[in-house]
Design brief:
With 284 residues, the chain is mostly helical. Helix content is 71%, strand content 2%. The protein has 11 helices and 2 strands, in the order ββααααααααααα. It has a two-stranded antiparallel sheet. A hairpin with a 2-residue loop joins β1 and β2 (14-16). α9 (196-234) runs parallel beside α10, α9 runs antiparallel to α11 and α10 packs antiparallel against α11 (252-280). The chain is flat and about 75 Å long.
Length: 284
């Protein structure tokens, strides 16, 4: 068998052999190495949501669904407008945002510190992973009565519950991101006698940042779930307390209005994380 060398000539997105380029009979073969680069459509999600809402409203208008169990989107919108005009919406929302923001910030800062320690220190890894593996599966909302005994009745136990839930998820995301940094980059920096702090700042932190930002999406959802649960157990104001009260009174339009507000809050958080990814991960 002879060792024949074949070269290719680029033509747009296709690659053809010299025989094809000179008008040969070989069939064109499309370029197959584009990789997996899914793109986000700007309008596909909005169109899908609009279709679902339209079908929902149509089913309610035709009395195919009992409005007591599932109000129409227009009824939910009217309930949201009434809540906004009365000021109750802003009062409940302000309490929930304060608890989420404070708990998420405290849990994230602690999780980043512990996650980097586990990723960079042998002793911290040996001790930290053991405690995280043992405590992470515990439902954090189950600790709320104990936190109330320790911290008293007020905002502190609710914020602590959120911070605990955010801490473990953040720590896992951070040390997983540190482990994913290519070690040849770290060895290269060490071979040039780059200080440890500079390696962490210029090599480890950028390499782990995609995992950290992905963890932010998870921890934001965790914080939202925990604040609703905590407010349902022991709070007078907050979206969770409002949803629980509306459910007890069978005010399903207001209950679903609270659910829609939570969904919108999740969309805003997702948009903020996407904005951070565009700003901080431009090098990708």
């Amino acid at each position: 068998m002879s060792n024949a060398r074949f070269s290719v000539v680029e033509r747009g997105n296709d690659e053809v052999s010299p025989a094809q380029a000179s008008g040969g009979d070989l069939r064109d073969v499309g370029f197959r190495g584009a990789g997996f680069l899914p793109q986000t459509s700007r309008y596909a999600g909005l169109v899908a949501i609009a279709v679902v809402i339209g079908l929902w409203q149509l089913a309610g208008s035709l009395s195919l669904i009992n409005p007591v169990f599932l109000p129409t989107p227009l009824a939910i919108l009217r309930a949201m407008i009434q809540l906004a005009l009365s000021g109750a919406l802003w009062r409940h929302l302000a309490y929930s945002i304060l608890r989420i923001g404070t708990g998420w910030l405290l849990g994230t800062l602690a999780g980043i510190i512990v996650g980097f320690a586990i990723g960079l220190s042998t002793l911290a890894r040996s001790v930290g992973i053991t405690f995280i593996s043992a405590l992470f599966p515990i439902p954090k909302i189950a600790l709320l009565p104990l936190l109330i005994l320790w911290l008293g009745i007020g905002e502190e136990p609710k914020i602590a519950t959120i911070a605990l839930g955010v801490f473990f998820s953040t720590a896992i995301a951070v040390y997983s991101g540190v482990d994913a940094v290519p070690r040849n980059l770290i060895r290269m920096a060490q071979s040039f006698n780059v200080p440890f702090s500079a390696i962490v700042r210029r090599v480890v932190w950028p390499g782990a940042l995609p995992s950290i930002l992905a963890g932010f999406r998870i921890t934001a959802s965790v914080a939202l779930l925990l604040v609703v649960s905590a407010e349902m157990i022991g709070a007078e104001y907050g979206i969770g307390a409002f949803v629980l009260q509306a459910g007890n009174l069978m005010q399903t339009d207001q209950l679903l209005a609270g659910v829609v507000i939570l969904s919108l809050f999740g969309l805003v958080v997702g948009w903020l994380v996407s904005w951070l990814e565009r700003r901080l991960l431009r090098w990708r």
